[in-house]
Recover the amino acids of this structure.
DNA sequence: TGGTAATCGAGACGGTACGTCACGTCTTTCG
DNA sequence: CGAAAGACGTGACGTACCGTCTCGATTACCA
């Protein structure tokens, strides 16, 4: 958990080892409750403990507080960064843009917006967030660089600005507007519009 | 507040009228505390009452709960929607994009991110949020429409997608990344890149 | 209450006054639970609050902790010191000795032994205990003094030792041995034996 | 301890034998902590284990709970019942009365009062207490009986009442009033006063 | 001018959740 | 197999806020 990522070959501390069943039950209960309730505020440690069939102390032994637990719970939702076949710029971009703020677990959709304020809380939270997001950003950056090298995209574009243009609309929609039954801004439209520009030729 | 916006010519109810000093003190204390602390969770009604020099009941007499008070407090931060001179598409867009998530009050910068999860809480919150944002969106929509009519922009663009492309990067940056001392994605860059597209011609 | 004995003509502090119903309910619940359970350890503040139909904070607002509450609860059990008719030394002594460790409330019998260790905890507890006991001791002391003055008792007796002789057997029996269904050492026997002595004449 | 007093010639059970070092360390730690703190409540098994350098399970393997451990710990404090030279009634009584509630170990003085409520808890506790006290009571009873037989004391005295008269003052003083730096009620005074009675002759 | 009525501040009310600590039990590894 | 170490589920601790409820004191208005 959180505080012992590299469990490589630790010499094994004495005493009863921590239960992995508890680990999973806690994270699972957290996600369930978050998805059922609608806010971080209404998520209580006591409810998590009850739902997970676990004592409160077992939670506090692993995480210092609600924030850390939340971040850790989210981390388990994120699958691996999507793989780019590398066929065409357009296809790659559509794939990566569609993956922004996307998760395998359906509960994630309701959980993510709750994390926005958390991210702004402290640099520790921010770094945890970056660790999750950065691999995906790097994949996107790489696709853009390759396309420029191959002459498919203009050489003078600002890559950071471009990434913001591509990813922010999806992120915004899925964070602020996930409530709307279906998504109105599709990845393909975003990519095509950004690629072609608005001006008449 | 909130529940008595149209005090036009009410027949004046009997009894002592509500103190406007209290109204202001409460909203002000709320914004102060929000800007000092970093989360909605750590904002307590009791602290607001103490800071405002007001009884708790005086707050609950005006707002049904923390959420409503928060929304109202934010509303006071937002100035009027910016006026578009209507000189060129580019200038107008730069102006409006720069105004996204922008506020006069410096406290707003720290407060806004806290509101993201609130917005997703209930349709009431959502509507309140829309009421604040919609005028600005409409101004932007109008600029785009006029530009299309005048033949400055392609006629086949999807206006909603385009608005997302233009506004989301600023919004994302100011919500998720306000911590970064200075902004890295400038309105001009966004507008120019979107206008011109990425492809080589 | 513990902390405001002289409520004579206080200028009435602002805010809602404390509920006397709560005062009584708490003390009553405490005595009930103490009499039901068998130890101070098994008496919990939460159980008191529940039984009294009161929030925990309402208890902590009045008493700093379990000890203080207990002492206060006991105080309410003790009736007024018994009145001495002053007929004969023997009658007066029998009355006062019988009153040692005696209470109106039947619950007291089970509660008192629990207080012995409390009394030895700190000087504050000790003083509280003395305040309860001292009036009774003084009444006994007075009876002995008068009897000496009237020539009914020897003038060379040590009054403190004599008081210990008279009261300790009852106290011990009622503290350590209350479990024995009926008392084996009666006040009359104590008084008579002490008055007459053990030696043959 | 408690549950295996007669380890005389047991056939030696298999596996690692129990450490006698642990036995002593646990009892010693218990007495130390009891003497340092002032109540049974503040004595915790975890503290005992830590102080004794022992695992909690090692304690629970030997005693069923805190009460049993306490009683056992106290038992180790009590020396053998004092031997009566049998010179004169008065000398014997002074000796035995002075031994009431008396212990070799100075820690006992602070521990004893804590045991009063324990004694009243259950019949098991009571029996354990009686087993400690009874030998001393029997010695006193014997002295009184012999003195009556020899015609030194009146034949009509109630022996149980007399024992209460003699022992209770010391017990009370040492249980309730041990805090007073020095004792005010000396064994000699008690014995003499009880022997002679209060009345003028 | 003297009610009537809703406000004000203060703070107590019954609750719920917090994060900590100790309980007595269970589960490791080591000697 | 007993030892230590320490995690386990449980539940009480004392604190902080919740949203509601009295209090006495203040304003306004209307009669």
């Amino acid at each position: 958990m959180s505080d012992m990522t590299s469990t490589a070959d630790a010499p094994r501390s004495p005493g009863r080892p921590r239960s992995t069943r508890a680990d999973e039950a806690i994270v699972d209960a957290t996600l369930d409750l978050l998805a059922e309730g609608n806010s971080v505020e209404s998520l209580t440690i006591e409810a998590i403990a009850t739902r997970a069939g676990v004592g409160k102390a077992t939670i506090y032994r692993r995480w210092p507080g609600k924030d850390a637990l939340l971040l850790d719970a989210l981390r388990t939702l994120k699958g691996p960064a999507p793989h780019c076949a590398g066929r065409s710029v357009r296809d790659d971009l559509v794939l990566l843009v569609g993956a922004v703020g996307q998760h395998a677990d359906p509960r994630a959709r309701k959980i993510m917006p709750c994390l926005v304020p958390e991210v702004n809380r402290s640099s520790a939270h921010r770094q945890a967030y970056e660790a999750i997001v950065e691999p995906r950003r790097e994949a996107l950056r790489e696709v853009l660089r390759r396309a420029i090298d191959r002459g498919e995209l203009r050489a003078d574009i600002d890559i950071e600005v471009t990434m913001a243009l591509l990813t922010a609309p999806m992120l915004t929609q899925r964070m602020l507007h996930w409530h709307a039954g279906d998504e109105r801004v599709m990845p393909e439209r975003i990519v095509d519009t950004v690629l072609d520009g608005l001006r008449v030729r």
Summary: Residues 13-19, 22, 49, 53-58, 61 of chain B lie near DNA strand E (CB under 10 Å from a C1'). The longest helix of chain B spans residues 123-149. Chain B has two domains: 20-75, 82-198.
